[in-house]
Amino acid sequence: MSRPTRGTLTRVPPLNVGNQQPRTPLNADEAWRTTAGRAPRTVLFFDFDGTLAPVDDDPTAVQPAPKVLAAIESLAPLVRRIAIVSARPVEFLREHLGGLDGVDLYGLYGLEHSHSGGETVTEPAALPWVPTMAELADLARAELPAGTLVEFKRLSVALHWRTAPQLGDAVQEWGRAQADRLGLRVQAGRMVLELKPPVDRDKGMVIGEVIRDAGGAWYFGDDVSDIKAFAALRARAAADPDFFGVCVAVANPETGQEVAHAADLTIDSPAALGDFLTEATHHLT
């Protein structure tokens, strides 16, 4: 199956609940025009890494792509809500998004959230796992080979091997063994394996809750965890024929093909997303 080209919505077999086909027009302009008629009831969701910001060898050094923040700021008053749903902690998102007004932040796959600049709220069931995660991060730094980057996020530990691809198998084997030992959940990603508490919270659940009474939604993501978010839009559309959902994949050389096959539209890069969103403001106004 070929990858959808930039700017073209294609009817590809989605990976979704119930195998529902995309309910979208045939191109991006038509999709935005359809959205314009229901903009006050539409939510725009964005992943952060690889979507709003290019992936970097150093995960602490990433910054949003040009035009992205300005476009989101312009779109915020035109739609019902804009939300960032990320594996990053809320505080990281807050610092890197420049204090955007009216934007909701969901961190650590929804284990944390902050609405419109308010306080950060943590899922109570995850809090008892903080000491376990701290101990796991220390163990990873002691046992994993040099070249592995251990990212401690308070409620999760991410094991990166981007700068040492040859370590991928060993890091994953170690991480999965620790998850089995401690009763943790594992989330695979772009040259990263993340270990999380066994708490029922993921991107799909976040999106499903937010769009229960929405008239439409777009989700922009680049990694396999975003497929659950796509599935939430598909499930909502299956339950309500009037709901208009669009799943957008941001291309990448690692997981991009799998994510693109689950999406309606593929965009070339975070930089291209900035241009795409800037153009979208014209459709919605």
From TrEMBL:
Identify the EC number(s).
3.1.3.12
| Catalytic reactions of this protein | alpha,alpha-trehalose 6-phosphate + H2O = alpha,alpha-trehalose + phosphate
The UniProt record lists the keyword Cell inner membrane: no
Q: Which UniProt keywords apply?
A: Hydrolase, Magnesium, Metal-binding
Does the keyword Transmembrane feature in the UniProt annotation?
Answer: no
Q: Where is this region: Disordered?
A: 1-25
**One GO biological process from the UniProt record?**
trehalose biosynthetic process
Q: In which pathway does it act?
A: Glycan biosynthesis; trehalose biosynthesis
Return the InterPro entries for the record.
Answer: HAD-like_sf, HAD_sf, OTSB-like, Trehalose_PPase
From the UniProt record, which GO molecular function terms apply? metal ion binding; trehalose-phosphatase activity
Q: Which residues cross the membrane?
A: none
Q: What the protein does? A: Removes the phosphate from trehalose 6-phosphate to produce free trehalose.
NCBIfam families for the chain: T6PP
What this protein is called in its record is Trehalose 6-phosphate phosphatase
Q: Please give the organism.
A: Micromonospora krabiensis
